[in-house]
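does this look right to u?? pyridoxal-5'-phosphate version
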Amino acid sequence: MNPPPAAASSSRSSLIAAAADRPADDPIFALNAEAVRRRKAGESILNATLGALMEDDGRLAVMPVVREALAAVDPLRAAAYAPISGEPAFLEAALRDVFGNKPRARHTTTAATPDGTNALHHAIVNFVEPGQALLTTDYHWGPYETLATHTGRRVETFPMFDRAGAFDLDAFERALRDQVARQGRSLVLLNTPCNNPTGYSLDRGEREGLAAIVREVSSRGTVALLIDLAYAHFGGGVASAQLDAFDDLGEGGVLLVAWTVSKAFAQYGARIGALLAAHDSEDERRRIANALSFSCRGTWSNCNHLGMLAITELLSDPRKRVRCEAERGRLIELLAQRVRAFNEHAGRAGLRYPRYEGGFFVTVFTADSAACARRMRELGVYVVPVRGAVRVALCSTPAAEVPRLVEALQQGLAAAGG
Ligand SMILES: Cc1ncc(COP(=O)(O)O)c(C=O)c1O
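got this back:
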């Protein structure tokens, strides 16, 4: 009888080399799991880690009109495959939600994606060559790196803030020129308004300055400027106003918009979103539309049909739209109260953080974010350490808890040496 095969060595993996040493879990979800475990064990825990808007009592904040719309979709329609690039009525509704009746809407092609994450995915695989880097701010949403690594691309960053705490346009210009000179192209990912993790929203002057730089540099190579609108509704004003400055991005410029229902409809689980690409040339729009459709086929094939039909109804039926705005308005106000409370207490405590007028998160700068977050965990307060700061999720912190949060931040900063 043959001996049984030797047990596989634990150091040998059946995975390809690049996949064999992936981190086990998203660190934010791991911190959240620890916070939840401690709370279940009876401790008083303030969990300011997760990026979902919670009611003051800790339940997920939702919009009833969205639940009703999902329930009202014809099950037979929902059961059928959706078109590869998305339902035409959905694409039109998403386009109008972003651009309203602005002329730009006529020069834009749209593809449905499972939420904002995958809108970013499609931008990366179609506007950055394998091996090349995309460009973003040094403070950015961690999955930008996961998406880039996973698709064989890289991330290069530029300092987000200048010494005065404003968006560092000079640093952006230097980084963009340099990248375009090396790569012949650039995909810039910019999350505004309500940047995750800093909470910062570019003001009109900063958006105009940014556009002028892109216009100039795009005479030397392709510059795809992607505005990640994940938190657009929480930044005050309508999305189209955020994009006005980017109407003209010059010869080699293209405007991309990552649009998602996750935060806008408090519907994180449905995975509904879109990537919009605005370009003046009809030929180029056709090429982009084909490329995006190919990417859809080559990844998820087609999106959640039920969700797309429900969101289309909410965006197109005037009465449901009004209800949506009212229910979303309540959520916006819930968050605004927390932002006001934070500015009041953190301002009084002298914490250092960027201009914060709204949004799910804010970052408080610190010399040692790991030490700061560790001390805060000892006090039962969970925040996410990032490079040079801790990210605080006001979206999951009731206004009444803000004084405890700020007190813990002060103690954390003291432990971190400032
Ligand atoms: C900056 C940013 N962009 C995009 C997303 C995408 O979220 P989703 O894939 O749920 O639309 C998120 C979610 O947290 C985010 O924070």
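The radius of gyration is 22 Å. idk if thats expected tbh
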